[in-house]
Each structure stands twice: as structure tokens, then as C-alpha cells.
Amino acid sequence: MQRSIAGAVCALMVGLGTRAAAAGAGPTKPDLARSAETAADDWRVAGHDNGDSRYSPLAQLDEHNVGRLRLAWSYDLDTHRGQEATPVVVDGVLYTTSAWSKVLAFRAATGELLWQFDPKVPGAIAVQVCCDVVNRGVAVYQGRVYVASLDGRLIALDAATGRPLWSVMTVDPKRPYSVSGAPFVAAGKVIIGNGGAEYGVRGYITAYDATSGRRAWRFYTVPGDPARGFENEAMRRAAKTWSGHWWRDGGGGTVWNSFSYDPDAGLIYFGTGNASPWSGQVDGGPRADALYAASIVAVHVADGTYAWHFQTTPGDVWDYDATQTLTLATLKLDGVDRKVAMQASKNGYFYVLDRLTGEFLSGRPFAPVSWTSGLDPKTGRPAVAPDAHYDVSGKRFLAKPGVLGAHNWQPMSYSPLTGLVYIPAQELPFPLLKDPGFQPQALGRNMGLDMASTLTLPENEPATAAALAAQKGYLSAWDPVAGREVWRAEHPGPWNGGTLVTGGNLVFQGTAAGEFLAFRASDGERLWSFPAQTGIIAAPMTYAIDGRQYVTVMAGWGGIFPLSAGGLSFKSGRLPNRSRVLTFVLDGTASLPPAVQAAREFPAPPAQLQAAAAVTEGERLFPRYCSGCHGSAAYSGGLVPDLRYSPALADDALWNAVVRDGALSNAGMVAFKRVLSPAHIDAIRAYVIHRAQIGYAAEHPSAASSH
Ligand code: CA
Question: What whole-number distance in Å separates Cα of residue 640 and Cα of residue 665?
């Protein structure tokens, strides 16, 4: 019996895809020149420069010749999970990361692989990663490449060889932290944050000496247990804005994306995520402001002390992370040059702040907003709509923007030539309902929501069609001075890629529908497209070598949306993940292999063994423990195995080996016996069989379902 289970587990592993170790090793102006790390032909920082403009002055490629843009080289990655990195090019070498925090170095002109580095992230970490096993890239500085691994290590590599030089653990491995953001180098320090607010952790950022790896400072974003004393005055003040026993759930406020830097001011800028849990306190009444969660924060790079904050969403219960990397620029506002930090925030507002003081300058909605009737024009504080407080009312609230935001981590860009910001915007309304019986657990998502009642939409029913119809995705060209959209390019659906804008008056963006596109930056005319065979969520970048301008993007559908939304992520089509580095040049001569779509027969599901009550119980449990990776209806958008096909459904011993005992823990499917009873595990199986029967009936309308 043991042998047969082992064999079956191996068969399941094959379905998980590869993650094995790879072999071998004007009126406005951008604040670019001030970045010592910027050289015109290179792309030296993930965001191009310290101000994260993602604007390159390169102009060989322009609105007149972009039609001749062709593939120069491509490289197939050894993973089928989402690709979110922006590559970096320094001195002719392109450095990037793939899912599972693997680092690759290429000769940027040819695509020749120079070296690769696999940090060998333990697969079990995936169970405490909200949003796919992604990584957003490296920092390169003085001959070293820095990467943060999913399990929380900051690793320095020799840029020439990929050999590890040092590694430090940046998180408490006993807490459900993870790291997906790119490290950022400023003033000789490497800075890194972390994620995990959906599971219950305390957010912070840490700076390490770039040469030695020695810890320089740490800045917590939310206060800890008052009984232990506060680290600084900023935490003491923040603690007055919390209610209940917030520290028991960690507090949240994680800094899971990246950073910007003003060297003249000596300030580092970042945004913080939601407080934990989403729904507010379990024992302290409605959430108060909860500083410095859902905030834009500046700290002094020299010592990590607090400089200022602006809270975009006081008392956030809608997962309105303010983690979108801040874009720094100088804008002429009311006739005066102002040094600003800009953010198109998850909460639907485009903010312009004075980056020296944190003063609110403007905030305008760039997408539909249902949670507020507007912002105070002086302070920027939102007037929250009464029905938005589902945490107080106990009633369902349809949040616009939804929890994936009107703009998520996908980077925006800013052109000093057009004065416009290019936002990968979306509309994904999300129903929120509090779970009145919520208690934090050691495994699974701790968000305090009743998602079974709101999110588990049946296939082929009007509610699903309505949810899909409400989804939108578009590229919004936004005037940050006037606070209005200048043009918009509609895409088939949401969750599209980040943007790049160039001196050739071009904006580049990939889409969920598998197209890599170029638009005229000034008016949005679509000029060029390339069929990428997979959805693109990462941001492109550009560089020049020997007089030729290249454009590179990491292709590979994934991230939280397809992973957790299942059929609700198919608005743009059902493209599989094909993870690749794609590089383009004028008159390039490379081509991709043909896209062969593997057809898959939906096998007949086993008979339902459990009573209807078990199915209902499984439906309640599934969103909390399973749907983060396996979709809201037992299938994700193609990144991990569709549970409805699983041979374990018909095999009691195999089901328990995997779900109860953790036979696939190397792939993130850890033992759930810690938090789930045998009856719960049976109920989840009953629910998945139920979903399989619905799916089978839908694909075989004439066959009699066993249900
Ligand atoms: Ca969040």
C-alpha cells in the first residue's frame, strides 16, 4: 500500500510542473540625472532609476520604425509559475529572476546564458505565499547582484560568476513571512521588505551594508506588543491609532514591493500593505486608523528613522495596500516646481505628495471607486461610504476597486516628454463579507472573510457571467498635474503587464491576452504587437548595446489572479504559462517555437461519497485553506494542478497522504492535519468531487452526472 501511494504521489508531482534545480550555476522633468546609477544605454535599477520612472531616453526605436521590431532572442525558463521581474542591464549583461527566486545572467545582445543561481527555496514555503511563488528582480551594485529569496534570505552574488558571496536571513522563519520584492540599493545599503499580512505578520524593512551584509537598521511599519516597549517614538505614536490586541495577529503593514530614493533628501520611499486581518479586529471592535498600514512612508536612508507618512486608507478593511512603488518627479504645480512622489494606489486614487514633507498635493480617482465619496481636498483623508464598512454592518459590500486593486504591483511609468503617467489599470470588483466566527489559524489565510458565500461562483451561472462582465483592464495615460486621464487603451481583461515609456515616444505593455504591445505615448495609437503565447504581467525594459536598442520583457502568466480566481481569471482567454525571456530589436530574426496547446480530456469524476452537508462544509473550508493556490472553485488559472482531475479524489489513501500528511510538501502542499480534522479533510474532498461533477457535466452535457 505504501509503495502504491508513493507511486501515485510521484505521478502527481509530474503534474505540478518543473521546479527542480537548474543545472550549473519641459514643464516637467524626471529626476533621473541625480541617479548615479543611471547610464543612458543601461537599465541599472529595476525601475530604471532611483525615482522608478521606468522612462528610458533611448530613441533609436520610435513611433515611425517600431513596426520593424522583431524577436532578437528568447530563453525558456524552467518553471510554469508567474514571471514578475523587471530585468536589469549593466555593462552589457542582463540580470533577471524567475519564479522561485532563481537568478539568471545573459549576454544582453545575444541571450547567451552566462550563469544561473538557484537559492533552492524550500517548496513548503508556498503554503504561506499569498500571491504565487514570484520574484520581482535583482539589484546590481559594484560587481554584486542582490536577490531576495521567497523564504526571506537576502543573497549577494558575484556579478561575474553568480557565486554566492554572503546570505542573511531577513525574516523570522517561524512566522509566515515571504519575500517577492526586488532589493533596492541606496547609499551603500541594500534594503528589503517582506510580505505575509494575509497570514498575520508584522511588517518591516531592513537595510544591510552592501559590501559586508551586516545589518545597518530596521524600520517596523506597525507597532508591536506594547508590553514589550516600543522601538521608537514613531511606533509609540502609531500604537495610539490601533484598537484591540492588534499585535497578536502581527499587525500587518508589510512592505512587499519595492522602493524609491531621493539622494538629495536622503529619503527612502515605500508603501505598506493591509493591516491583519483584512476584516479588522476580532476582539477590539472596529479598526481605527492603524498606522502605518496602508500608507506611503519616507524614512532617512542614513539610519532608518521615520521622516513622514501619508495614510492613503485610514482604517483599511479592503486590502488597499499602498505598496505600488513611488514614482519621483518634479512637477510644475500652480506655477511652482514641486518635488513629488506619485502613486496610482490600489484604492483607486492617484496621489501626488510633496516628497520632502509628505504634504498631500492632490488625489483623484483613476478608476471607479465605491468605498468612498471622495477625499478631503486639504488632507486627502477619504470620506468612507457607510455601506463600505462590511466589518461593522455584517453585510456584503461590493468593493470597487476590489482587493486586487485598480492598480496592483505591475509597475507604471512616467515620461518627461509627454508629462504623462502610464498606469496598468483594472476594474475587478470584489465582494466582501465578514466571517463573524473568525479565529486566526497557524495555516491558511487569516483574512476574517466569509469567502465561501461571496466568491465561490458556480460555473455557467449568471453570477459568474456578471462577475466576468464587470472586469476591465486598460492602459491609462494619466496627467498628474491636471489629475485626469488623457487617453486609454482597452484590453480584453484585467491583470495586464507593467509599462515602459521611451524617448522614442513609445509605451510598451504586455497583456493577459498574450500580446506584447507598443503604443504612441502621446496619443495612445496602437503601433505594434507580438503574439507572446502566454499572458504577460511583468514590466518591459530597454537598453542599447553597440548602437542597437533592445526591449526585453519577462513573459509568463501567473500571480495571484489566475492562481486564486480560477475561472474568473479567464476573461482574456485561457493561455497557459510559457515562461520565457523575450528580447526584441529592429529587424531581429529569431522566432518562437509554434504554440502547441495540449488538449486535455476531463475524466469522469468519482461518485460522491459524502452527504450534502459535507459538501457545504467543504465549500466553507476551501477558500480559507485551499483556494489561495487552487482557485475559488477547485481549479486555478492553469498554474497548479486542476484538482478536479486529481487521481486522489477516488483514492482515500492517496487523498490523506497528500492533504493530511503532506506527501507533496516539497511543492507547497504541506500536511494540513495541524489545522484540519479528518472530517474537515473528508469534507474538502467531497467539495472537490462536487466541483469535478459540475465541471464534467458542463463538458459532457449528454452524460448523466452521478450527482
Ligand atoms: Ca494585501
Answer: 14
